[in-house]
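About this split. The held-out portion is used to measure sequence recovery: a designer receives only the structure tokens and must propose an amino acid at every position. Recovery is the fraction of positions where the proposal matches the reference. Here is one held-out target exactly as it appears in the evaluation file.
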């Protein structure tokens, strides 16, 4: 048997990258991820995380870029494109409105459509329209009362028709969600 050693470069978390405001650095980090994944013959990356920091209690803020949706848009677009240019398929996550970690299954985010498009959705848009992501991981959260992964308005109208997404959507782990996500 051959021993395999898997290493990785210690890339700064998304929040630190965004705080640098250095687009070239963020691009290079995407390239490094793509290059390393190629060495390991891994073809998909369950990242980047594109939710905005709406709540300091969100347990995933370390993997999201910023509370600023424009900065998230720009950083996600650059890193997604750089990784995909290296042949890696990015699965932009957690699409969308994943505002908290504790009791995140079925969490309901309530806001107007305008606030939703200018806030939480804006951060994701760059990874799809400019970055060309071919994958997304949905969240188990609700926008209003509809689970995002089951929302025709979000998954079809916005993601596919408006943003031109042609890739694959996968759900996040749905353990314990049988009461509101139909997985039969």
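Reference sequence for scoring:
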């Amino acid at each position: 048997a051959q021993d395999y050693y898997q290493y990785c470069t210690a890339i700064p978390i998304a929040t630190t990258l965004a705080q640098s405001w250095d687009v070239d650095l963020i691009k290079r980090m995407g390239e490094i991820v793509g290059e390393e994944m190629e060495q390991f013959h891994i073809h998909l990356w369950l990242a980047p995380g594109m939710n905005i920091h709406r709540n300091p209690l969100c347990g995933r803020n370390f993997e999201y870029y910023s509370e600023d949706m424009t900065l998230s848009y720009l950083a996600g677009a650059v890193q997604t494109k750089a990784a995909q240019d290296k042949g890696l398929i990015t699965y932009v996550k957690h699409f969308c409105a994943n505002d908290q970690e504790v009791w995140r299954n079925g969490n309901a985010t309530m806001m107007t459509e305008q606030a939703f498009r200018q806030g939480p959705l804006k951060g994701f848009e760059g990874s799809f329209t400019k970055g060309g992501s071919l994958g997304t991981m949905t969240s188990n959260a609700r926008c209003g009362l509809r689970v995002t992964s089951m929302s025709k308005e979000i998954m079809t109208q916005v993601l596919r028709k408006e943003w031109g997404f042609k890739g694959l959507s996968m759900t996040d782990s749905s353990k314990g969600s049988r009461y509101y996500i139909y997985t039969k």
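Annotator remark: The two ends are 40 Å apart (CA to CA).
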